[in-house]
């Protein structure tokens, strides 16, 4: 029994009770005569993505939410404290599955927020494009059984769905969100283009109303795993939950577990979580959190406002709790099928926590009578039910991203540094690793562990080479860094920009309003931070280190030109 399994069992993984693609070119593997032996030596993969999860939500990352299953895996494996994504979901997912920058993989911006100057531009197709091959396509070509259940968000048409991009079996929510109980599939929701689409192995289906999303996505993945119980091939299972993405909704019995837990407010939660992070060795002992931005002090709220805010966080916590319970069900299934010890598990959030004020599917555009036609009831006693429709807001989001600056939608640490860990065979566990890692590193890591190499062409077309790095040497404990300190890594979304190079990071937040979030807080000037000394991005060093800032801005400009970043037109000169 490997060390990972022993530790996970000792920590007590728990579970709820259980309620053709064309082959392109030959995968670069050992000869077919040795295929059975090769399969026996290659691990299975379980890749889990949480949607809008906060940095410190899990117990193993400083949180108070009950997450024993994830905590057991995380502490037995390697917790990454410097893992970075794009600022929002679909750009991250394009990078995760392709190993290529989102501006080249087709999600230069979210399809829902494309600006006029971006529409029709290469890399801004709004779906995972043909310049890349997904990791599912490559692994399937190499002999893996490929499975997916959960949120796709990489294309709506049949030829852009998971069944067409490498997944042998799939159940997918195509859009970026949906009601977690399926209560948004009627004519009223379709009339405002807010009804989600689900595909079962490529066929459009109705979601089973009343089933909770995390429960049903897990049901389907477990079914796919059980179908392949006698299949000798290794598997790649992709489980991208739509929890805890808004609307915040959860089963009432789970919400009840957190009654009163958050009555002290978001500042108190931020302080408690940061204290626990320090105790766990996740952050420096002397680290102060970034100040909250655009958040009303808890003491300034009325009793009714406090009650509503506390209830929101109770529901959010229940969403994370229920996701963890379902992951326990998957782990139990793998053990029952005898596949657990041979499975590498990678878990990550797709971006930082959601900090917008949300009370309807089309924010700021629906009148009260229109919300009523949708059946939305956001009264205190109904928050968390299938007929409620809320986000949990900037206070809780920034408490959950602490000590970092800001939230989802921004290229700051609070928007892009996420919870992530890996465990299983070929992973030397029981460690915390703080080196800078990118979501583009996952695809090359999986292909490396599968003993495959990326081809130059797939399905008769040239594909872009991986831009991320294999983490295998890091997983094995052979090295702590996968990038040289002079390697620049750029980011851009909603015209907000960042460039990381070693310990240094330059950030540009535009001063004008953007598509997401609805209110911009930027200054329109580049800022400079030393992340090693100032992980909370509190001290702008632009004035003290002008040469370093110029260097990083030049690197970002090169990145933008190389990746095809489309920026807004320069403002016209006044006559």
Written overview of the protein:
With 575 residues, the chain is an alpha/beta fold. It contains 17 helices and 18 strands. It has helices spanning 3-11, 35-41, 68-76, 89-98, 102-105, 135-141, 187-191, 213-227, 252-255, 266-280, 303-336, 368-373, 393-401, 413-416, 442-449, 472-475, 546-563, and strands at residues 44-50, 78-80, 83-84, 145-151, 169-173, 198-200, 203-205, 235-240, 343-349, 420-423, 431-433, 437-438, 457-458, 461-462, 488-493, 496-501, 504-508, 526-530. Strands 7-6-5-4-8-1-9-10-2-11 form a 10-stranded mixed β-sheet, with helices on both faces. Helix 1 runs antiparallel to helix 3, helix 8 runs parallel beside helix 11 and helix 10 (266-280) runs parallel beside helix 13 (393-401).
The gyration radius over C-alpha positions equals 23 Å
- The global form is globular
Structural class, judged by helices and strands? alpha/beta
Order of strands, main sheet, comes to 7-6-5-4-8-1-9-10-2-11
Task: Give the distance, in angstroms, between the N- and C-terminal Cα atoms.
Answer: 76 Å
Unreliable parts? 1-34
What is the strand content?
Answer: 5-15%
Mean pLDDT: 92
Q: What is the makeup of the main sheet? A: 10 strands, mixed
Our count of helices gives: 17
Percent range for helical residues? 25-40%
> How many strand elements?
18
Quick structural overview:
By secondary structure, the protein is an alpha/beta fold.
SSE blueprint:
Layout: H1 3-11, H2 35-41, E1 44-50, H3 68-76, E2 78-80, E3 83-84, H4 89-98, H5 102-105, H6 135-141, E4 145-151, E5 169-173, H7 187-191, E6 198-200, E7 203-205, H8 213-227, E8 235-240, H9 252-255, H10 266-280, H11 303-336, E9 343-349, H12 368-373, H13 393-401, H14 413-416, E10 420-423, E11 431-433, E12 437-438, H15 442-449, E13 457-458, E14 461-462, H16 472-475, E15 488-493, E16 496-501, E17 504-508, E18 526-530, H17 546-563
Parallel strand pairs: 1-8, 1-9, 2-11, 3-12, 4-5, 4-8
Antiparallel strand pairs: 2-10, 5-6, 6-7, 9-10, 13-14, 15-16, 16-17, 17-18
Helix pairs in contact: 1-3, 8-11, 10-13
């Amino acid at each position: 029994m490997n060390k990972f399994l022993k530790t996970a069992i000792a920590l007590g993984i728990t579970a709820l009770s259980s309620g053709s693609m064309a082959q392109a070119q030959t995968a670069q593997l050992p000869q077919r005569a040795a295929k059975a032996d090769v399969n026996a030596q290659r691990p299975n993969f379980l890749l889990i993505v949480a949607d809008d999860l906060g940095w410190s939500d899990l117990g193993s990352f400083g949180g108070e939410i009950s997450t024993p299953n994830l905590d057991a895996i995380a502490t037995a494996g390697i917790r990454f404290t410097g893992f970075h994504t794009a600022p929002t979901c679909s750009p991250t997912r394009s990078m995760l599955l392709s190993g290529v920058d989102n501006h080249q993989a087709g999600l230069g911006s979210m399809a829902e927020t494309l600006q006029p100057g971006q529409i029709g531009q290469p890399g801004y197709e709004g779906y995972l494009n043909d310049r890349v091959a997904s990791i599912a396509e490559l692994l399937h070509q190499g002999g893996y059984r490929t499975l997916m259940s959960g949120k796709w968000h990489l294309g709506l048409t049949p030829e852009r769905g998971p069944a067409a991009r490498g997944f042998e079996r799939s159940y997918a929510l195509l859009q970026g969100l949906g009601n977690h109980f399926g209560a948004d599939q009627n004519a009223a929701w379709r009339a405002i283009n807010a009804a989600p689409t689900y595909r079962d192995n490529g066929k459009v289906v109705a979601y089973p109303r009343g089933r909770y999303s995390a429960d049903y996505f897990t049901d389907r993945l477990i079914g796919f795993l059980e179908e392949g119980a006698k299949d000798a091939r290794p598997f790649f299972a992709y489980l991208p939950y739509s929890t805890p993405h808004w609307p915040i909704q959860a089963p009432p019995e789970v919400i009840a577990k957190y009654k009163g837990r958050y009555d002290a407010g978001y500042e108190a939660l931020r302080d408690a979580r940061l204290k626990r992070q320090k105790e766990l060795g996740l952050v420096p002992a002397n680290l102060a959190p970034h100040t909250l931005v655009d958040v009303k002090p808890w003491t300034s709220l009325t009793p009714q406002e406090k009650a509503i805010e506390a209830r929101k966080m109770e529901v959010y916590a229940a969403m994370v709790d229920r996701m963890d319970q379902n992951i326990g069900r998957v782990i139990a299934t793998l053990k029952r099928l005898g596949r657990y010890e041979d499975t590498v598990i990678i878990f990550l959030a797709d971006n930082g926590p959601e900090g917008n004020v949300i009370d309807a599917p089309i924010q700021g555009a629906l009148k009260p009578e229109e919300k009523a036609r949708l059946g939305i009831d956001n009264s205190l006693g109904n928050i968390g039910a299938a007929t409620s429709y809320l986000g949990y807001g900037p206070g809780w989001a920034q408490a959950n991203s602490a000590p970092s600056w800001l939230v989802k939608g921004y290229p700051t640490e609070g928007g892009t540094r996420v919870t992530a860990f890996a465990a299983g065979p070929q992973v030397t566990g029981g460690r915390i690793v703080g080196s800078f890692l990118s979501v583009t590193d996952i695809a090359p890591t999986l292909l490396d562990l599968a003993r495959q190499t990326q081809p130059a062409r797939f399905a008769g077309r040239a594909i872009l080479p991986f831009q991320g790095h294999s983490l295998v040497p890091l997983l094995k404990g052979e090295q702590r860094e996968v990038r040289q300190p002079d390697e620049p890594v750029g980011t851009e979304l909603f015209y907000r920009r960042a460039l990381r190079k070693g310990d240094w990071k330059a950030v540009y937040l535009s001063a004008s309003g953007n598509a997401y979030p609805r209110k911009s807080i930027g200054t329109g000037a580049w800022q400079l931070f030393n992340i090693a000394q100032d992980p909370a991005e509190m001290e702008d060093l632009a004035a003290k280190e002008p040469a370093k800032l110029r260097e990083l801005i030049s690197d970002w400009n090169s990145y933008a030109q190389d990746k095809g970043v489309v920026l807004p037109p320069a403002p016209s000169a006044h006559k």
